[in-house]
Amino acid sequence: MWGDGMEELNLLNQLGLEGQHIVFILVVAVFSKLLVDVLKNSFSIRKNLLPLVGVGVGVGLSVVFSLLPIVEIGVVIACVYGLIAGLLTPGIHELIKKRFGKTKNEGKGDVV
């Protein structure tokens, strides 16, 4: 019914995304989320600007990571991957908050 997953693999191959590139994006996204949290707690940044800050941090981190000798990714491709990673940071934040954070009704009793 759903296929054997070959469509997804073909799409990734057409985009040129291999395993190390996806891992690069995820590592940059996690570090971007951590750095955005540090910036949010250090400076007064409005909440509606946090995704934009995440994109900027993601692009900056990916360019810095691409300059490491063990990473074989060009700077332009690293900027694109950083943009993707920066766009992932709000989603990572929501995922962590939903999974490990407190809910709105927690501690208020049995509110239905």
Protein traits:
112 residues; mainly alpha
**How many helical elements?**
4
Biggest sheet statistics = none
Mean pLDDT: 81
Through-space gap between termini:
38 Å
Low-confidence stretches: none
Structural class by SSE content: mainly alpha
Query: What is the string of SSEs from the N terminus onward?
Result: HHHH
Q: Total domains, how many? A: 1
Give the % helix.
Answer: 55-70%
The general outline is globular
Strand content: under 5%
> What is Rg?
18 Å
Tally the beta strands: 0
Keywords: Membrane, Plasmid, Transmembrane, Transmembrane helix
Protein name: Holin
Transmembrane segments: 20-36, 48-67, 73-92
Organism: Pontibacillus chungwhensis
Question: How would you summarize the topology of this molecule?
Answer:
Layout: H1 6-15, H2 19-42, H3 50-66, H4 75-100
Helix pairs in contact: 2-3, 2-4, 3-4
Protein name: Holin
Keywords: Membrane, Plasmid, Transmembrane, Transmembrane helix
Transmembrane segments: 20-36, 48-67, 73-92
